[in-house]
Amino acid sequence: MAFRPFHSLLTATLLAVAFLVSASVQALTFRLPENNDEVVGDNMTYTTGYEDTFVAIGRVYGLGFRQMMNANPDVHPWVPGEGTEITLPLSYILPQESREAIVLNLAEFRMYHFLPEKNTVRSYGVGIGREGWETPQTETRVTSVAANPSWTPPESIRREHAERGDILPRVVAPGPDNPLGQYAVRLALPSYLFHGSNKPIGVGMRVSHGCIRLYDGDIEELAHSVSPGTPVRIINEPVKAGWLRGRLYLEVHPQLEEDMDKPLGFDAVIEAALVRRPNHGITVDWDKVRLAVEEQRGYPIDITRD
Q1: Shared-domain flag, residues 230 and 249
Q2: Strand partners, 280
Q3: What pLDDT digit, counting tens, does each position of 123-176 carry?
Q4: Is 216 in the same domain as 293?
Q5: Which end of the chain has fewer CB atoms at under 10 Å, N or C?
Q6: Is 87 a domain residue?
Q7: Which of 16, 69, 77, 21 is nearest to 41 (CA)?
Q8: Pick from 70, 93, 116: which residue ends a domain?
Q9: Terminal CA-to-CA distance of the chain, rounded, Å?
């Protein structure tokens, strides 16, 4: 494999990306931007090998499956082919919510853990609840952290599995058959939690019954970084706008399936960003905006008119 910088958004902010040979992954960790800037990271171009898939690449770089697909819509996710150049979407506009908490953006399939005392933010790819079992938008908090958790499946899930001929026990002991993986971060929101998974392919997809799945290395890091009372905000924002070095960027994600008939509201998001910088002195290039909205690549696009 080979990789090189794709564009230079904020090279100095990318502190650490763990490229581990094992299944363990660590979060993308960024220094919080200076001068009230709102964009972190750099995209990269990666040249695929013969056996590469989006799932395998995403697992190494901490990227979810949908995120990889959105950034590379013309590449086959399971057979990209040897020598194909793909984009690794490693740049992000930070959410506008309070930077004293965990912020999970459902439309982005991504979570941000702000650590202001360390002047950093960690970013994790996540899997969320499928249609009919949606992960709710809410404000809540961490209540406890458990290593090697057991799983007590609700009766509704046991019935669902029984209809498929899969009889779940009342309690699933820790181990390779436990869908919670190695760690669970429980929330004040009943029946919802952040957890690892014995099926990492679900990170970046809608496959859960509402809980939030992370790669094993990510949930381990998160479990050691939070404590009871840590605020958690779950939002659903397919469009973000943010500033970097006096230029305005737009990040557009496909809406969740149940939101497809709702307007994106990108113009309001852009206007809010302009209001945050009343003396900005720029002009928005609306042709760039329309292209970003049409393509929905899921990473920041410079929409400043040159």
Answers
A1: no
A2: none
A3: 999 999 887 778 999 999 999 999 998 777 666 666 765 667 766 667 777 878
A4: no
A5: C
A6: yes
A7: 16
A8: 93
A9: 35
DSSP 27-93: -EEEEPPSTT--EEE--EEEE--TT--HHHHHHHHT--HHHHHHH-TTS-SS---TT-EEEE--EEE
**248 phi and psi angles, rounded to 5 deg:** -105, 135
Candidates 79, 92, 91; CA nearest to 44 is 91
Range of the domain at 148: 126-234
Q: Which of 35, 81, 20 minimizes the C-alpha distance to 215?
A: 20
What is the distance between the alpha carbons of residues 284 and 219, in angstroms, rounded to a whole number? 39
- State the pTM of this model: 0.87
* CATH code, domain carrying 155: 2.40.440.10
CA 73 to centroid of chain Cα atoms: 18
| HSE-up (13 A, CA, CB side) for residue 77 | 15
Exposure of 158 in the CB half-sphere (CA atoms within 13 A): 11
* Torsion angle (degrees, nearest 10) of CA 29, 30, 31, 35: -160
CATH of residue 31: 3.10.350.10
45, 88 in Cβ contact below 8 A? yes
CB atoms inside a 10 Å sphere around CB 153: 17
Beta partners for residue 139, in sequence order: 233
Answer whether 111's CB lies under 8 Å from 124's CB: yes
Q: Are residues 32 and 88 in the same domain?
A: yes
Query: Which residues are marked as active site?
Result: 195, 211
**Block residue for tokens 């363990």:** 24
